[in-house]
Amino acid sequence: MSILVVGSVAFDTIATPSGRVTDILGGAATYFSLAASYFTEVRVVAVVGADFTSEHEAVLKNRKVDTRGIERTQGKTFRWGGQYLDNLNEAKTDFTELNVFEKFQPRIPKEYADSQFLFLANIHPSLQSAVRREMNGVRLTGGDTMNFWIQGTPKELAETLKLVNVLLINDTETKMLAGEKNLLRAAKKVIAMGPSALVVKHGEYGATIFFREGAFGLGAHPFRAPALPIDEVKDPTGAGDSFAGGFMGYIASQGEINREVLKRALFYGGVMGSFAVERFGTERLQNLTREEIDARFQIFRELTHLE
Amino acid sequence: MSILVVGSVAFDTIATPSGRVTDILGGAATYFSLAASYFTEVRVVAVVGADFTSEHEAVLKNRKVDTRGIERTQGKTFRWGGQYLDNLNEAKTDFTELNVFEKFQPRIPKEYADSQFLFLANIHPSLQSAVRREMNGVRLTGGDTMNFWIQGTPKELAETLKLVNVLLINDTETKMLAGEKNLLRAAKKVIAMGPSALVVKHGEYGATIFFREGAFGLGAHPFRAPALPIDEVKDPTGAGDSFAGGFMGYIASQGEINREVLKRALFYGGVMGSFAVERFGTERLQNLTREEIDARFQIFRELTHLE
User: What's the CA gap between A131 and A128, in Å, rounded?
Assistant: First the structure.
C-alpha cells in the first residue's frame, strides 16, 4: 500500500572520522523514501531549488519513488553542514541554510490523495498538523520531531501529537518532550499526549516501541529490537530517517497492523538504519536488494534470539 | 557446580535521586555472590574489618553463600561513597577508603580448592592472576576490571587477560582497553588480548557477548541481550556485579558450556542486574525466588522475541 512522506530534501556537507563530502543529496524525506521504497510504493512532498537537478531526482526515480510532489521554486535547496567527532551518535551542526525550505507550504498532488499511510518527517509541527488534517483518510500516521520544536513550539507540537499514531524519536527527545529522565516514565507521558505507540531510537543500541494499553488490540508491554554492532560507521546522517522508512515501509507492505507486524517493522527499521550508515549519504540505500535486506533481518533476529 | 568469587566486600554510602543511605553492605563480591546464589553454590574470598558483624555475614549466609573465605583483620572494612545525579549510568565518587582492602592478599581455603568456576571481581590484576594460577583446575574463569587498572597497571592487566576466559566490562572500559572507539573493532582487539569471550555491559540497553572464532565450538557472531526498561532505578550500585553473578551463576549451574548456555546466561545476567537496581544496596537480591527470576527471564525473552 502506498505511503506519503512529507519532509525535507537537502544538500548536506558532512565530516566524519571516515571522510568529508560536500553538497550531497540528503534530507529526511530522501532517506525515508529510499529506505521505504524496498517495501512499498512511496510518494514524496518536499520543496527544492533550481540547483536540484534531474540527476538528483534520478536517485529517487531509480527506486520508483513518486516525485511529482517535489515542488521546484526559485532559489537554493535547503543546505545543512555538520560533523561527527568522537561520538558518532551526535552531530555538531556547522551551518543550516533553510533557503527555499523556510517558506515550505506542503502541497499534496491530487494523485497522492489515496495514500493509505503517512509519514510526517521533522518539519514545523503546524505544517505536520495541516498535512495530517488534509490526509484524513490514512490508516496510520507516523511522525518525527526534534528538540528545536519541542522547546520552541510546544503548543503546536501538542496539537500534532494528537494526530500522530506512531511517534519516532530518540532517547534525548523523549525525555525532553516528557520533562522526565526515566525512559519508561517518559514514554508513558509521551503516549498520554496522543500517539498510540512511541518508537524510541537508541542509536547503536537499537530501538524500543512502547504501546498505549489497548492500542492495535495490544497490551502495554514494550518491545525492543537490537542493533547490529557495525565495524565502521562511515556517516550516521540519515540513520533515523532510514529507520523510519524501513519501519513505516514494512508496515505499509502488510495487510494488517498487529503486534507481530509492529515488532518485525522495528527490526526492519534497525536493518535500514544499519545499511544507511555504512556509506556516506544515501549511497548504500540506492542499490540494495530485498534479499540483502532480508538476510540482515535474519542476522538481527539471530543476534537476540533464544532457542 | 560451585563457583568461587574473589573481590571486595564494602560499606557503601550512596545518594541517588531516590534517596540516601550510609554504610550499607556492598562490594563486588557481595553483589556477585547474592546474584549467583540463586543458581549454584557460591564461595567467597574477601577481607573485612572488625566492623563487619554477624548481621552482615548473615546476609550472605541466608543465601547459603560459603563465607569461610572472608578474612577478618584489624581495622575497618573498605568504604566507598558516591552519588548518581542526572545520569544513573555513571557514579560520581565522593570518597574511597580502602582500609583493610589496601593490603588484601587473597587466601583460598583448602575447602574451596575443588571450585569448578572462578570469578575475579575488580581487584588489582596481579592479585587476579595469582588467584587464577592457584586455581588452575577451574573449568571457566570470568573477570572484571576498571579504568583505574586499564590506565594504571596495563602490563599486569595484560597478564590477567591471558588467564581469563570471559571478561565482563562496560562500553567505556572496552573502548579504553582497546584504544579504539568503534565497539566491534574494540571487542576484537580485547579478544586478541586473551579472553575467549567478551561481555560488554550497556547499562540500560543490555549487553553484548563477543566470541573468539572457534571458542566454545562457536562462530564469531556476537549475541545481544536487551534490558527491560525499568520504571524506577533506585540505586544502580552493584548492577554490573549482579549481572556477572547471574551470568556466571547460570553457566555454573549447567552441565556444559555452549552457545545456547552463554546466550541464556547473558539474559540471566540482565535479569539479576535489573532486580539489583530496584532497591538500595543488596535489598532486592536478598529475598528473591527462582520463580520471580524465571518470570522476569520470560519477560526479557518476550521483549525481543519474534515469532
Answer: 5
Residues from chain A contacting residue B303 (CB–CB below 8 Å): 221-224
User: What is chain A's alpha carbon radius of gyration, rounded to the nearest angstrom?
Assistant: 18
Q: What is the pLDDT of residue B243?
A: 98
Q: Could you say which of A86, A221, A263 has the minimum Cβ distance to residue B181? A: A86
Architecture of domain B3-304: 3-Layer(aba) Sandwich (3.40)
Closest B-chain CA to A210: B229
Question: Hey, where are the domains in chain B?
Answer: 3-304
- Say whether pLDDT at B163 is over 70: yes
A216 pLDDT more than 80 = no
The 10 Å Cβ neighbour count of residue B95 is: 9
> B306 vs A303: CB contact, 8 Å cut-off?
no
Residue A87's closest chain B neighbor by CA? B181
Binary contact (A306, B260; C-beta < 8 A): yes
Number of H helices, E strands in chain B: 11, 13
C-alpha cell at B224: 545481544
Which residues from A are below 8 Å from B208, CB to CB?
229
The Cα-based distances of B116 to B103, B245, B255 in angstroms read 27, 15, 11
Return all residues near B172 (Cβ < 8 A) that are at least 6 apart. B147
User: CB distance A182–B86 less than 8 Å?
Assistant: no
Three-class SS of residue B267?
Answer: helix
pLDDT of A275 = 96
Q: What is the ipTM of this complex?
A: 0.86
Residues written for chain A: 307
Classify residue B76 as exposed, middle or buried by CB count within 10 Å of its CB (0-12, 13-18, 19+): middle
**CATH number, span A3-300:** 3.40.1190.20
Residue B115 host element (H or E): none
- Closest by Cα among A150, A242, A145, A151 to A198: A145
Q: Do B229 and A208 touch (CB under 8 A)?
A: yes
CA-nearest of B269, B249, B267, B243 to B41 is: B249
Which chain B residues touch A264 with a CB distance below 8 Å? Answer: 306
User: What distance, in Å, lies between the first and last C-alpha atoms of chain A?
Assistant: 34
Chain A hits for B225, CB-CB cut-off 8 Å, are 304
- CB-based contact B182 A224, cutoff 8 Å: no
Q: Enumerate chain B positions whose Cβ falls within 8 A of a Cβ in A.
A: 17, 86, 181-185, 187, 202, 204-206, 208, 210, 221-226, 229-233, 260, 263-264, 267, 299, 301-307
Measured CA to CA, the distance from residue A20 to residue A28 in angstroms comes to 20
Asked whether the predicted pLDDT for residue A86 surpasses 80, the reply is no
- Give first-to-last CA distance, chain B, whole Å: 34
The pLDDT assigned to A228 comes to 79
